[in-house]
Design goal:
alpha+beta, about 25% strand, 4-stranded mixed β-sheet, about 300 residues, 10 strands
Length: about 300
């Protein structure tokens, strides 16, 4: 005996938004097992008819701006900054802020070397040329500052040992600083930024070095110098309108005259301080031009 089923019909009335047009789709469907199945079937019939369903989800809006950072792009930015610092630092004579960029020549050498390798790998001819020129420019500047006197190994002259140490007036470990200086056993010692708070800690240095000159009244620009060499004369010189103290030694080293100047300049934090720094260096240049024999400027 055959079992018969009633035919169930599903009608979906769909209205296209804003057009006023509607459509009716009717198809036979199997007996519904539940309400969800009937709704699902109605949606399928509507899609087959090429109509949008009433509960279709809205499309995501496209992002206003998409940004992606690649390794190559990052390297190119680093290359640009490194090369820019190289050449802007060379224009320091025209503005004090540009002069600040001239303090990182060693870092520029490393960066230019890396950029040169990057340019060769990426076959960027222009970047290769600019990186190579910048590398050579920084290298010749650094080599000029690191030229040393001929080796004295073949002579009986003892090498001169000079120690300069910016101890910072706010240093809370002065005893360790003094112990380090004593262990170094240098011929000339120059300490910067010593003030009255350092007075009692400097006693061991005064005992070790019979000749010492100190000015502990200048706060962050206080200075103290000690030497074990034979001293012809010594004095405190003051440069620029601020009267910052510097120590000048006229020394006798193995029968030869040696002038030693220890100084501490203003940092170029603004245009006025930058001008004072240049005046300070200009005064030292005038002093050096009138001295016969060797001279060491430290600080």
């Amino acid at each position: 005996m055959k079992r018969s089923h009633k035919k169930w019909w599903c009608e979906a009335e769909l209205v296209w938004p804003g057009t006023g047009c509607d459509a009716v789709s009717s198809e036979p469907m199997p007996p519904p097992f539940n309400l969800e199945r009937r709704v699902s079937a109605c949606k399928m019939n509507a899609r087959d008819a090429g109509l949008a369903t009433a509960n279709a989800l809205p499309m995501d809006k496209p992002p206003i701006l998409k940004m992606s950072v690649s390794f190559v792009g990052l390297c190119e930015v680093v290359a640009f900054l490194s090369l820019t610092g190289t050449w802007l630092g060379s224009l320091g004579r025209y503005h004090w802020m540009l002069d600040l960029m001239a303090h990182f020549r060693l870092q520029y050498i490393v960066a230019c070397l890396l950029m040169l390798l990057f340019a060769l790998v990426r076959r960027r001819s222009l970047l290769t040329v600019v990186s190579l020129i910048s590398l050579l420019w920084n290298a010749q500047i650094v080599s000029g500052f690191h030229q040393t006197a001929p080796s004295l190994a073949s002579t009986n002259v003892k090498p001169l040992r000079v120690l300069t140490f910016n101890v910072r007036s706010s240093n809370d470990r002065p005893q360790e600083v003094v112990e380090h200086v004593l262990a170094a056993d240098a011929d000339i010692v120059c300490l910067l930024e010593v003030d009255h708070g350092w007075n009692e800690f400097l006693v061991p240095l005064r005992s070790k070095y019979l000749v010492h000159v100190e000015d502990l009244t200048a706060g962050n620009f206080g200075i103290a110098c000690y030497t074990s060499l034979s001293v012809k004369s010594h004095e405190i010189r003051r440069f620029t309108q601020w009267g910052l103290p510097s120590v000048l030694f006229d020394l006798d080293r193995s029968g030869n005259s040696l002038t030693f100047l220890a100084t501490h300049t203003l940092p170029p934090g603004n245009s006025e301080d930058a001008g004072a720094l240049l005046d300070h260096l200009a005064d030292i240049a005038v002093l050096a031009s009138g001295i016969d024999g060797e001279m060491i400027v430290a600080g």
